[in-house]
DNA sequence: CGATTCACACCTAGGTGACAATCT
DNA sequence: AGATTGTCACCTAGGTGTGAATCG
């Protein structure tokens, strides 16, 4: 799909709003069966907690799931129409990064602009002052794959019935992957993107393709692809919040 | 669906046979997109091995999977048409059974006709001479539920691509079950039945419902529903062939 | 007394980060 | 030296029959 980004969290609130004309930014020229579509990101506070530290996602040759899992609650679909749900991943910039020492003061969140090397720092400060640094221009873009939700296609009523979870989606750094996984470049930043596509029963529906889908990007889900965790705080938060990593927890404060 | 039983293993062999007229027993009056459908039972030799001993399937309150799992290889579908696949279970008679001593000579397979009590036997013969005896008329029939294959609906091409497995299907004896499981009466005999239903895009498609499906019954998959295994040979064969029961195996002769 | 239920040990199947080894 | 790979112990999640307890 073309790179149209709807404004997440904006637009009509949850639930269909009868009589609404599909106008305003991102809605014009859309089929009436998709223009009212709304998506609410689940586990938003967890995503934000990761995002404050600078989310990292592991990529492996065999494919690794995301954590947190990308899941949304949908509303505003036509209950009796067929939809395909899918995800893709957009490079956030054309840079390559590395984890290392910096001048401090900026925190771990955004990457520091510019690419000059910082001076070495006393060892005792190394941990807290480490951050993501630009290491050059991006590597050649990986094959731009998409991941279809395995329940696709399905009726709007079915998609809205419960939370839609993309827990089968896996990330890989293997450019020759033939398992259908999403291929990403390690040490590059990405923005997950979610698409609702109306299955158009009309003949020549290709000619209406541009108006038959609606896309959602949630900034708090952006991440750095890595082959091994760099920020130790990210590791600790993953261990604390991912049930499959329970084996690495120390004391258990509260359920 | 109505109780039409196709002859399993008969009809056109694997693969679509272009130009075939849909005639002969079980094919007349059927839509041309279903009349060529053929289903081959997978793991046939395992099913037959169980059937020779008298297959038993456990039913529990929470729901129990079948073993062997009912799986088929489909052919003869229209690759571009939509189909729904489903299963139901037909009582094989209107009798209730119990496991106990018999006169011997008949083997463990079929239930003994008549209901008179056999005389007691020496203890050392009890095991080999036990068999299923009629214990009276059937209990009131359980709610007649069906199990839709979770991938339904899907294109004929998708269904024919690989083996279709009903491993999510569960059997229960709880008449008030609200998990959508198949409800069966314990100590009653059943015949699993498999249905291929064409999704008819025509309006008023209900009026064509009788010609839009084709059904398959494989006699070697019939079984007795039980809450605990009665025939010790069945228990041993389950343990020997079900990977999840590996913990109960003694010596491992061969892979 | 036969039929059913339940907690349990023991599996399959697969998702974690740690860590040592290896690659570039 | 930094990035990547592969193996591993340790989890989650859930499918087995067992055998004691309970039901009717």
UniProtKB/TrEMBL annotation, chains A, B:
Q: Give the subcellular location.
A: Nucleus
- Signal sequence region: none
Example GO BP: positive regulation of DNA-templated transcription
UniProt keyword terms in alphabetical order: DNA-binding, Nucleus, Transcription, Transcription regulation
- Any Pfam family from its record, for instance, is T-box
Q: Which domain of life is it from?
A: Eukaryota
Q: What SMART domains has UniProt attached to this entry?
A: TBOX
Any one of the GO CC terms:
nucleus
| Domain T-box residues, every copy | 41-250
Q: Which InterPro entries match?
A: p53-like_TF_DNA-bd_sf (IPR008967), T-box_DNA-bd (IPR046360), T-box_sf (IPR036960), TF_T-box (IPR001699), TF_T-box_CS (IPR018186)
Principal cellular location given in the protein's record: nucleus
GO MF annotations, alphabetized: DNA-binding transcription factor activity, RNA polymerase II-specific; RNA polymerase II cis-regulatory region sequence-specific DNA binding
Name of the protein this chain belongs to: TBX10 factor
Q: Which organism is it from?
A: Asarcornis scutulata
């Amino acid at each position: 799909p073309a790179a149209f980004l709807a404004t997440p969290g904006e637009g009509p609130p949850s639930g269909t709003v009868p009589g609404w004309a599909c106008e305003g930014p991102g809605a014009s020229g859309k089929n009436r069966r998709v223009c009212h579509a709304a998506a609410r990101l689940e586990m938003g506070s967890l995503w934000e907690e990761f995002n404050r530290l600078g989310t990292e996602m592991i990529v492996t040759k065999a494919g690794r799931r995301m954590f947190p899992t990308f899941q949304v609650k949908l509303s505003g679909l036509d209950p009796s129409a067929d939809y395909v749900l899918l995800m893709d991943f957009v490079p956030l910039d054309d840079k390559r990064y590395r984890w290392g020492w910096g001048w401090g003061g900026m925190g771990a969140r955004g990457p520091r602009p510019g690419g000059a090397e910082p001076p070495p720092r006393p060892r005792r400060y190394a941990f807290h002052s480490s951050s993501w640094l630009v290491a050059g221009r991006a590597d050649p873009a990986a094959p731009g794959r998409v991941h279809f939700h395995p329940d696709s296609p399905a009726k709007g009523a079915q998609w809205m019935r419960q939370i839609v979870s993309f827990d089968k989606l896996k990330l890989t750094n293997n450019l020759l992957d033939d398992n259908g996984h999403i291929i990403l470049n390690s040490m590059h930043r990405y923005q997950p993107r979610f698409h609702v596509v109306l299955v158009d029963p009309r003949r020549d529906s290709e000619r209406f393709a541009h108006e038959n889908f609606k896309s959602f990007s949630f900034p708090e889900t952006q991440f750095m692809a890595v082959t091994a965790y760099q920020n130790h705080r990210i590791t600790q938060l993953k261990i604390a919040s991912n049930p499959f990593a329970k084996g690495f927890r120390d004391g258990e404060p509260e359920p």
